[in-house]
Design a protein that fits this description.
Two copies of one chain form a homodimer. The first copy, chain A, is of the alpha/beta class. Chain A is built from eleven helices and 15 strands. Chain A has two domains: 49-151 and 286-313, Rossmann fold, CATH 3.40.50; 153-283 and 317-351, Response regulator (Rossmann fold). Chain A has helices at 2-5, 9-17, 24-37, 43-50, 66-82, 97-107, 153-167, 182-197, 214-226, 239-251, 285-301; strands at 55-60, 86-91, 113-116, 123-124, 127-128, 136-139, 147-151, 171-176, 204-209, 233-236, 261-266, 279-282, 310-313, 316-318, 350-351. In chain A, strand 4 and strand 5 (127-128) form a beta hairpin. In chain A, helix 2 packs across helix 3 (24-37). The longest helix of chain A is centred in the first third of the chain and has 17 residues, at 66-82. Chain A is elongated. The structure holds a DNA duplex (16 and 16 nucleotides). Chains A, B: Residues 316-353 are annotated as: Disordered. Chains A, B: Keywords: DNA-binding, Transcription, Transcription regulation. Chains A, B: One of its GO terms (molecular function) is DNA-binding transcription factor activity.
Chain lengths: 353, 353
DNA sequence: CTGTTAGCGCTTTCAA
DNA sequence: TTGAAAGCGCTAACAG
């Protein structure tokens, strides 16, 4: 290739990388030859020489909800692409084989940095991704030792719950995320604090666990339907479960919001097209990804260890059609409220089934 | 590293790659040292030397619907990961900058093969991905010159339309995909053929174009609502548009399926949780991805050019609650059917607005 | 401003 | 069975 243009390989390299350092004459000749031969520098050689690969690993949790994560990924990809980086997908699988794989890629120098959406730094045996010293950013859920981009999820789920209480609901149902999930922990802790602050004896809360999928909402709805005294307000830890819940209770003749109010969390697009439209907390999904990617680029620019930082983005609570004041009990019907005698044991976070 | 174990670098390489060719004694010593030092071979050097990178590029169309594509991607990733390959995301953006980028990656030897979900081989100026001679597989939509994994989408959308006709619908509405989209072309062509075969003068079809998003369904519904004589059966080119359509006409007081029947295409999960549940054609999304990935691995195994092949997977038409026989016109109401005088101009594929 | 050269870390002949 | 050495394609340091 260099021979073809009648120059040295170094000149070719310079003409491509630092056009200013080459004479007008040669530069033109090189570029013309490059064009004519359709030459593209070999990435592996460049990577080997320069120690960087222009690839960012994105670690996605095992059963990531596409409607939520796809938009975060779009934010990441848009920003990284514009800077000339490519994204390698690291979907974690069940057996942990993939987890080992991504740690190895990282150690093999195949990657310039990692963005973690799974809430924890991948580990393989003794080795952690952190050992590589490469820049790492976590999004949506803080992974220890990394820079985190988070939302005010605790505050906003409390806002959603307050919305229900404000409408007059006193008997609540919380459809939780999977046990141990970082977001679930934060949201439940925030809710517990809210309930502790509310006038004791006034609000009752029951809780069941879900899987963040539609099916989790279905299961929660079945538990709900089986209750003798049904709660009138339901807080779901994400929109899929809220929608699965609504669909299932409706099939059993329970009206939303007339008989039960439901709020979700995430603000996926489907929340505007289910029946009824879902009152929910909208997370800035694209911006979460874009912000994380920008931080990654910064970290790559100025290398060296830096103390983990936290960036907080704001969610937005949106009231739609799935919430309303509780129905007044008709004469002869059991009241939704707990009987006066039950007033003392206010906070009753039973785990159902 | 080799010095540490007291052997040559060649021995280390052999111990890792071909354990059989190294004496028991040395092998153990090498492996132990590898473990102790946490050594991982440098990927770039290996790639440079071997000419392969263990990376597969997946080209995703610009506005890919997450509920559909995420599952295809999962199929791809699962199969490729198990074989030790990683996936690089090539989301195409608006300006075509990304298209150039992916072509360059391919030419730069950064990639061992490409899976194309966008229906066309990316091109940058004069250069096409095909020029690299690397294995290429297209999924969901055939890209010229590649091995394609497709479904019987024409047959199954016809099945969906026949379902409506079989229920008694004679005035149909087709909500198309974006103009020029490969899937849209195939489906519309199949529908046109069906209508040509049906007794002429009996079925009327009008058509409007959509964008494969919820918003496309909303727009189509507005066009529908504006019609003086509303069709009674609606075929949508994908589920998102069908759901957007249903929600919008319902808001205007049109009942589904009592006043209008709706069928979708794809079989995304939402189709089971919208109101009413959506009659639709379910595509084997995971299997599409997995099959394509397996073919890719085969192609990599036995290199050299091969004549493009086509693999067809079967869709499944599922009847749910969004379709029913057309309502009998009440006395004094205009019939849904075209008046007898209109019988001759049977197929009326008007494009609406 | 341009050419020569060394070497990134690995695998793979080729000899021993 | 093992070691020595060449070289994958590039870029950066050094001469000229």
């Amino acid at each position: 290739m260099a021979r073809e243009a009648g120059v040295s390989t170094a000149t070719v390299s310079r003409a491509l990388a630092a056009p200013a350092s080459v004479s007008e004459e040669l530069r033109r000749r090189v570029l013309e030859t490059v064009e004519r031969l359709g030459y593209t520098p070999n990435a592996a050689a460049r990577n080997l020489r320069g120690g960087r690969s222009q690839m960012i690993l994105v670690v996605v949790p095992r059963r990531a909800n596409p409607p939520f994560f796809a938009e975060v990924l779009r934010g990441i990809d848009t920003v990284l692409s514009a800077a000339g980086y490519s994204v390698i997908m690291g979907n974690l699988d069940q057996e942990g084989a993939k987890e080992r794989h991504v740690v190895e890629m990282m150690a093999a120098g195949h990657i310039d940095g990692a963005i973690i959406l799974s809430g924890k730094v991948p580990v393989s045996g003794e080795r952690s991704m952190l050992d590589t010293g490469l820049p790492m950013v976590s999004i949506c859920a803080a992974a220890e030792g990394t820079h985190a981009i988070l939302t005010d999820e605790g505050e906003t789920i409390v806002e959603a719950a307050r919305h229900l209480v404000g409408l007059g609901h006193r008997d609540l149902f919380y459809v939780a995320g999977p046990d141990g999930n970082a977001n679930e922990r934060i949201r439940w802790a925030a809710l517990q604090q809210l309930f502790a602050e509310l006038a004791l004896g006034d609000v009752r809360v029951r809780r069941t666990e879900g899987n963040f999928q539609f099916s989790g909402g279905v299961t929660a709805a079945e538990a709900f339907l089986a209750l003798a005294e049904r709660p009138t307000g339901v807080v779901c830890c994400n929109d899929e479960m809220a929608i699965g819940f609504m669909k299932t209770v409706q099939a059993a003749g329970v009206r939303v919001p007339a008989d039960v109010s439901v709020v979700g969390f995430d603000g996926i697009e489907f929340a505007d097209f289910c029946e009824p439209t879902l009152t929910t907390v909208c997370q800035p999904r694209y911006e979460l990804g874009a912000t994380g990617a920008r931080l990654m680029l910064d970290l790559i620019k100025k290398p060296g260890p830096s103390a983990p930082t936290t960036t907080l983005l704001a969610n937005e609570f949106k009231v739609r059609d799935s919430t309303a004041p509780p129905r007044q009990p008709r004469p002869g019907e059991a009241p939704a409220k707990a009987a006066p005698g039950d007033a003392k044991p206010a906070l009753v976070p039973l785990t159902i089934s």
